[in-house]
Specification:
Structural class: alpha+beta
Number of strands: 4
Strand order of the largest sheet: 1-2-3-4
Radius of gyration: 15 Å
Helix content: 25-40%
Largest sheet: 4 strands, mixed
């Protein structure tokens, strides 16, 4: 029997569990743009400024000449980056942010560790 592929939610929970005991990551936070919502809730969030395609995770620490690190977190398999997400990532990189699309929390952990060392 095949093991199920972890969901994007599970991957993000694991990433923040790993980050919880690392003081240098205290400012890292999730941007809750995704997910299915009731139409009224979606309309309210849009009025409040929620925008499609914004990456899932932001680490607002400057390193290596970058203003901060944005991560679009996907499942380990079958995750796709939408056109809106690609536009956001491109725009953020042009503005001096580091950006990455990570498949799974362990890849995101590696990207964060490299970023903190100034490698990325």
């Amino acid at each position: 029997m095949r093991k199920p592929i972890p969901t994007e939610h599970w991957e993000q929970v694991k990433l923040f569990d790993w980050a919880a005991d690392r003081p240098e990551l205290d400012l890292m936070h999730a941007i809750p743009n995704g997910g299915l919502r009731d139409i009224r809730v979606a309309a309210r969030l849009k009025q409040e400024g929620v925008k499609a395609g914004v990456p899932d995770v932001f680490l607002p620490l400057p390193r290596g000449g970058k203003h901060g690190l944005y991560i679009e977190l996907k499942r380990r398999k079958y995750g796709r980056v939408s056109p809106d997400q690609l536009q956001w990532l491109d725009a953020l990189m042009r503005e001096g942010y580091a950006c990455a699309v990570c498949c799974g929390w362990d890849q995101a952990r590696e990207v964060i560790e490299e970023y903190l060392r100034g490698d990325k």
